[in-house]
Amino acid sequence: MPFFHVVRSQTGPAWDAAQPLEGQSGWEEHAWFMDDLVVRGIVAFGGPLPERRVAFSLLADSEEDAHAILARDNWTDSHLVTESVEPWEIRLAPGGAVLALIERYNAAWNAHDVDAIDALHHAEIVFHNHTADERAEGKPAVREHIARIFENNPDLQFRTRSLGVSVGFAVCEWTASAAGKEWDGVDVFPLRDGLILRKDVYSASHRPRELPG
User: What is the pTM of this model?
Assistant: First the structure.
């Protein structure tokens, strides 16, 4: 499952000290790349450090995955040289409690732990799979519906692709797999009182991909 890394970089050989940030060559392409990572929840925050250095958070499966993401930036090794990439356990941050909540929730789904899932639901929980046109309201009905999902899909697993959180809200992009097939989807989570009030599901489950044998 992806987790945050802290990336520290130093300006590289192509950096022109006489120009402002927006005046550097290749700025527009670099800015588009970084803005896209922010929109997708892969970068949560970042900014400059003293002595022409920068630091930012990066959501990745591993240090190697983080470097692979950075390699797609047109500024890597020219305008910015990566000094370090380290795992980062963020405990204090806006939305930090929401991030921990959704990570526990996703882990419970992969464990098929209905009790753990139910414990994170608000009393007025609504589960609505918009793709499958399935809806359940209230903890007992949602619990029963999820248990039935696991009964029908005993090998169901989810891999988080991105997770964006704010105060009282979260959006998680994922890839699910079961019975030799996989499909992509997104969960939208409005929250209340530190618990999940709704789970709105949108997915491509109606057109899954065959997994290689």
Answer: 0.60
